[in-house]
Please model this.
Amino acid sequence: MAKKYEHLSDSERRRIERLKTSGWSVRSIARALGRGIGTISEEIQRNKVKGAYDARKAGHKARVRRQYSKQQCLKVTSNRELQIYVEEKLKEEWSPELIAGRIRNIDRHLPRVSAKAIYAFVYSVHGRPFEQFLYSNMVHGKGGPKRGSSTVMDGRTSIEKRPKRVEKRAQFGHFEGDFIESGKDGTGSFLVLAERKTRYPFIRYCLDRSTAAVNEMIFNLLRNIPLESLTLDNDLSFQKHKALSALIDAMVFFCHPYTSSEKGTVENRNRAIRRTVPKKTDLSQVSEETIRMIETKLRNRPMKCLNFRTPQEAWDAEMKKVEQKEKSAIHAVSLRVLKANLECSA
Model:
């Protein structure tokens, strides 16, 4: 029967201090105390102060650490406002990491809490009803291959020619697009577009997958947005890519066949959508209200890559910059016109 682990006692810490001061190695100290080498090594490294191991200070540090750890497990339930916030965000399918990061960076009026403490709450008797909202419990095994076939289109522009600033997400207005398919016996698809810098998504139900219908849908979605480029896969619906490029007045780039990772932004949004609309779902049966709910949820869920801002917040900030730039350009033109009129009248 394996020996039950016990925390180091104060007397053991005093022996460690004496033996270490006498020049004993970690291996020798472990052998003398009947402890594992890792236990002694970790004790010295974690609890030393200013490079020196002091038994009294080490014991104090260990006790404080254990006490704080226990408090963390109860921290969510110890503050009613914090508990309500955590429960609401879990229902919205935020991960404990997102909740903790959002509190740390944005919602600072709430007490800080670690992701570990939120997981402890979820797995406690207080948080069991919210365990169902964790990602690992909502997403099941992968489905089969997608239906339909892809094609290599002549004249397409490969993603290799896409500017580096797009890859670095340094510029606003670069989008990725993809389809989510219905189940085997279902009809229709979701067209998903996502802006790379802000991760802001658009979701539309698409019954007609003809190239003309898809091109028109993309144009209607993006016509009032400063669009720089669009990255797609080799789906047959994107076959008339030259017409699409002219329609949206932006470059269209294509990933390599069977390389979905090259448009990871929209693929990430697709996985999030699948939490509400699992694979094998007949998308024709998903109401427009549900689609808008999914879209709003994704737009308002914070992301670690956005420093725990939401895509909506990041999008609004970028659109504000665009508006300010347009106002500055109009103002500059007005000044030039005014100057020209004054010169003519002089």
